[in-house]
TrEMBL record:
Keywords associated with the record: Activator, DNA damage, DNA repair, DNA-binding, Metal-binding, Methyltransferase, Transcription, Transcription regulation, Transferase, Zinc
Catalyses which reaction(s): a 6-O-methyl-2'-deoxyguanosine in DNA + L-cysteinyl-[protein] = S-methyl-L-cysteinyl-[protein] + a 2'-deoxyguanosine in DNA; a 4-O-methyl-thymidine in DNA + L-cysteinyl-[protein] = a thymidine in DNA + S-methyl-L-cysteinyl-[protein]
A UniProt-annotated Pfam family: HTH_18
Protein name: Bifunctional DNA-binding transcriptional regulator/O6-methylguanine-DNA methyltransferase Ada
Native organism: Gluconacetobacter diazotrophicus
Amino acid sequence: MVEMTDMTERDPRWARIVARDRRADGLFWYSVRTTGVYCRPSCPSRMAKPGNVRLHDTLGAARAAGFRPCRRCNPDGASPQDIGQALVVQACRLIAARDDMPSIADLARAVELSPSHFHRLFRAETGLTPHAYAAAHRAGRIRAELPRADSVTEAIFDAGYGSSGRFYAQAADLLGMTPARYRAGGAGERIRFAVGQCSLGAILVASSARGVVAILIDDDPNTLVRDLQARFPRAELIGGDEEYERHVALVVGFVEAHGIGLDLPLDIRGTAFQHRVWSALRDIPAGQTVTYADIARRIGQPQAVRAVAGACAANRIAVAIPCHRVVRNDGALSGYRWGVDRKRILIDRERTAAPVPSARPEGRSS
């Protein structure tokens, strides 16, 4: 038994079983002598003692050794995680197809789960409750409907809002401007911007009347301007303003020496879930890094790792919302909207800087 234990623990696959690593599913299987079953590596059953475990390269090998499939992880078919994901996709399609918000009971009945089980599963897979997902879906629909509808009221009801009053109560935070102005493609909104240079390349800073809406970085200044124009196609873009260039100088100083802080308000536009992620990012001290899983736990949704990664990728305010401080579970640098090399430079710079507390800029949700 001791020899069997040592053999199992020395096998690198054992660590993946202990971690219940879903990525190992389909690569190998393991059987447990005391229960007589074989499992996939991510099986949620109670962890077996390594001395009772045998590792198998194929399902056939596990069966030939006289073991039967585990009923809990279903190693011969789709995993519970795959089944759960398929049910959530089905529920999301039901929400998207409805003009109103289906009740939890209706959605659970449609996927043949209890309401409580369905609610937990949906939140674990998407990072949102069904109600919050439906709200985010309606927000996307209203953004799409406003420019093409005959009136704001028509767009509101076509997007699935039960009343115009409920929508107008959320409009400023949702759109960052009045619905009529958004319907006109942002016409009338004044966006001031300027482009400067820093050690990371060209940097563009843009602000609405509420605060900084974008900090963009690229090698080519013209690419940054085109990006801004695409984001605000009918807004009045005001560039080359000497006064506003001081904002760029503040941001450049913040990039080069994070300890000086950035005393500028932010006009943050995104979904409720994105706001929660971005708020958690802004609480990471300079010089430290965390994983996507860490952020998911901090916002109270430990299963929403992929949704957290998506929110980081959607960030348009570089450095001030420090998505560069998020790394993979193994500490490696993952993708970064403004380039992995820039991410490495920012992390190294913050780690070697003097530990001076930085001021967190005021963020206004939009």
